[in-house]
Amino acid sequence: MSVPRAVLALLFFLFAILVNAQKDTTNIKSYADQVMIRANLDTNIESFIFSEGEEGKEKQQIFTINNKTKVSLSVDYKIISATLSFAPKFFSDNKDNELKGNSSYTDFSFRLFPKRFIQTLYYKNVKGFYIENMQDLFPGWKEGDPYMQFPDLRVQSFGGSTSYILNKNFSAKSIYTQGEWQSKSSGSWVPFLDYDLTVLRNKVDDKKVKETQYKIGGNIGYFYNWVLGKNVNMSPYLALGLGGKFSTYRDAQEDNSRVNAQYLTLRMEGGLHVGYNTDRFLFGGKMNFSAYTYNQTKNQAVENNNMYGLLYIGYRFAPPRVVKNTYDKIQKKIPVL
């Protein structure tokens, strides 16, 4: 997995310390009766890495998108959190269309927090990739030359995860959405199941190709909320997972016959959150990474890596009467809310 060694070393160090850290009981302040809005700015670096060759002599092709800066808007109320993300064209990192091609990015996520469960659902649509490591593949290529582009390559994902917080004195919402504030340091193991349906589309020699992938995996992670002061916290986490991937596509080189394949998948993700919180205003930053890999054949491997930093600022306020009344009516019909 292509994750910077310094990041891994830091996270493993924190992971080793926090597993043995104090298991304080904690006081948790909830802001569920407030509406919270957040604006997020992050550097979304998503790439697919195709490796071929014997170990130590692999040749890699790194497919990535041109959009590097993403804006997200979030709204939270009660146990519901919704986020819409997109990549505006006015950021300088989202330009260079002549050299890298035009990319588009949209991501919508919906999260519920019933008791100690966390249920996440998301939809992601990414289109327009280019090969990032041109120098490795074409020695004559130099900076300023056009990149090899795949404007029709599109990846759509529908997925989610179901998590359970083992420590009842640990507030996951204080890390995920800042919907709570935890006044004493505490951590928790969090087992979770992740699953998604991904559809890849592209054009090869004016022929449309399509691959459908189903993935499911079991994971275990450790999250720790380290309270540094009355209004400041730091929260590292690390998770590992194992799962399966099931792929269906038509082989254009073999009479367009349908091909089914199954793979064993490995997953690693982690991050660090630092935040400042008051009853009205909140702001902070996060650094996250996720790395997902599987072997296609003996000497072929595919990785999907995502590493980004995020800055956020938010504000809480009393819900408008129409919002409160509407939610209360829905809650009577759906008690889990």
- The count of helical stretches stands at 5
Element-level helix/strand string = HEEEEEEHEEHEHEEEEEEEH
Number of strands: 16
Helicity level: 10-25%
Coarse structural class: mainly beta
Largest sheet: 14 strands, antiparallel
Shape: globular
The proportion of strand residues reads over 45%
The quaternary structure here is single chain
End-to-end gap = 39 Å
State the low-pLDDT regions, or none: 17-25
Rg result: 22 Å
Q: Quote the average pLDDT.
A: 82
What report would you give on this structure?
The protein is mainly β. Helix content is 12%, strand content 60%. The chain has five helices and 16 strands. Strands 2, 3, 4, 5, 6, 7, 8, 9, 11, 12, 13, 14, 15 and 16 form a 14-stranded antiparallel sheet that branches. Strands 1-10 form a two-stranded antiparallel ribbon. Strand 15 (281-297) and strand 16 form a beta hairpin. The longest helix is centred in the N-terminal third of the chain and has 15 residues, at 5-19. Mean pLDDT is 82; it is low at 17-25.
